[in-house]
Amino acid sequence: MPTRHALGALAILASAPLPAMAHDFWISPSTFQAAPGSAVAVELRVGVSCPGDVVMRKDSRIDRFDVSLGGAAQPRPIEGKDGTSPAGSVTFDESGLATIVYAGKPAFIELAPADFEAYLKEEGLEWVIDERRKLGEAMLPGREDYSRRCRSLVRVGEAAPGAFDAPSGLDYEIVALHDLGRDALGTWVEFRVLRDAKPLAGALVRASPCQEGAAAQKARSDENGVVRFNLNKPGPWLVASVHMTRLDAESKAQWQSRWASLTFSVSGPVGEAAPGKRDVPMPTPITDQSPAVPTPPKP
User: What is the value of pTM for the model shown?
Assistant: First the structure.
């Protein structure tokens, strides 16, 4: 059966657009710790893991691309030249925690039955496999509209301690529940998965340090939409999840997927627990044999 890496290799060789299968999509700023007044280049990347491949800016595919600082009510659009990389550049005049947001327009893909099922298993979407079998579609191609929902956190200057992440209003997003500053390294940190601004239970989430050979951690969100990961490596991290819903019978696609990602960086001496985090329990690891989500989410 094709693996995530094998499917990724096929996708790179295939013509555009890249299929959703086996490919995360994320924001890669030139730095996660910027000085006020300095420019930060914003790249878009795609791949089965970091560092991935650079994606050129394509204005026709962008639904939202902006940045806000310290929870500003009105985000600023990120300007850039179509067909180039970096996709844009931003400059911050003040210190604080900046959030860069990218939301892509839906793209259609049709996958062979075996490839579609392999991808669904890899992303923890076993309930879709069960639903296709019930509907007699298991041997039919998977027709899907997929879109990207990406966020990235950049600390500007001496951001005050307790500079927390906040939701960006995306229909699917991952939000950090703790300060991801110096004290985050070597601790268990909580993230919340939101679907239309509400906590989503049962979502499979992956957290990967952007280091060669580093293993990904996996966990399913609890009833409050919360997952916990041990940020045990310094440097950039990628946290990602895929959500899928069934579309109505009149749509060209049968399924709609949203690919959420969050990138950030942690630094500091390993093992120094941040205040208030010593009591965060270690979660039960997720394995390939973990049970599927029992109840399919509704569109």
Answer: 0.83
